Amino acid sequence: MVDASGSHARERALMAHVARRYYHGGRSKSEIADELFLSRFKVARLLDAARRTGVVQITIDVPGDVNDNLSRELEEAYQLRRAVVIDDGAEDQLLARLGEAAVVLLSEVVREGELVGITSARTMLAIHELPQVPLPLCTFVQITGELPRTDASNVISLIRILTRRTGGSAQVFFAPMVASSEDAWRSYMAQPEVRAAFARFRELSVLITGVGAWAPGRSIIYDHLPDVRDDATRAGAVAEALGIPIDAHGRTVHGPARRRIVAPDVETLMGTRERIAVVFDPARADAVRVAARNGVINSIVTQRSNAEALLA
Hints:
Blueprint: H1 4-24, H2 29-36, H3 40-53, H4 68-78, E1 82-86, H5 91-109, E2 115-118, H6 122-125, E3 139-142, H7 155-166, E4 169-171, H8 182-189, H9 192-198, E5 206-209, E6 211-213, H10 220-223, H11 229-234, E7 239-241, E8 244-246, E9 274-278, H12 285-293, E10 299-303, H13 304-311
Parallel strand pairs: 1-10, 2-3, 2-5, 3-4, 5-9, 9-10
Antiparallel strand pairs: 6-7, 7-8
Helix pairs in contact: 1-3, 2-3, 4-13, 12-13
């Protein structure tokens, strides 16, 4: 007869051994599976059980001091699933801290095997080093083309970093976020890699994006479309999310500007469970209000001054 208590003790010892390799040793789940002659799914189950039973207890230290009161007020005011508000700071450091806080939030909401969409959001591209938090095995999918900036990393590099951390997989493509013409946009959208990524968007469980105002200096997309941005304004554009111009009701504004942006319509992603916006700059608060009140986003990571502007 098998001693039940002995079997339980061995299972807990294996949980602890696997957890030490994963959390302290920095091994991926695939590496642990190979080293211990276990299936990857067995390793994942052991890590889940270790957290559930208290073998592993995780304390999350979010970059910057999280303001619980403002976070809770934002959640209630905009009926958000989650809000994370950190302290203000110099813009270059603030962007990286917001991106890092978003990764911590990812660790809390992403489940094993899910698809996570990543856009070319400035805050995410400003990350210098990923926070030391556990991320489950998942697939990262590039949602937008490459942001037209030279002062940040690129979305493919970020996805590769995240993929290495989780041991998961990636779906990426090479295209700019803003095409030089409609013909160029059609060419990019016809590329097999772009079509393959876009085909997976309705499978996403989590996405991270930015939100901008449809105004000079408040949206990189607006600033890079001088020949067609006024057309979008006349059609009702007041903000942009995922790089796509949206109106006061959170709907995609179609037209020449839309046909230059390598990204999906916002409606395509409305079924995604966690739609996280990482936002900064109180001058964009009205744009964030539009996105939040119309359900384009349902979680926010931001700084104190922006939270206060949103609550004013």
